[in-house]
Specification:
It contains one helix and three strands, in the order E-E-H-E. It is of the alpha+beta class. The longest helix has 11 residues, at about 60-70.
Length: about 90
């Protein structure tokens, strides 16, 4: 048998939809948050346990949701968890 599943992995520096697995869900626990104003897009990078240096880079809308839930101080976000999911 030739296992072709490795061919599906995206070459990327961030978490991708295909990384969510068969269920389309991934529960992540934040380790640290990086914010850089100088980035054109995706100014917030969320590093989580087991990310292998491929952080979650939330959209502007998701950043608004996270700030609404947890506040604007990203230093308080570590140890919090997010259930990421995607619809197929």
């Amino acid at each position: 048998m030739i296992d072709m599943s490795a061919a599906m992995k995206a070459k990327s520096d961030q978490l991708n939809f295909v990384d969510l697995g068969v269920d389309g869900e991934l529960l992540i626990t934040i380790e640290h948050v990086n914010y850089e104003e100088s980035r054109d897009q995706q100014k917030v990078w969320i590093y989580y346990e087991g990310c292998n240096n491929r952080p979650y880079k939330p959209s502007l809308g998701m950043i608004r949701v996270l700030i609404g839930a947890w506040g604007k101080d990203g230093d308080t976000w570590p140890r919090k968890s997010i259930l990421l999911y995607g619809e197929k």
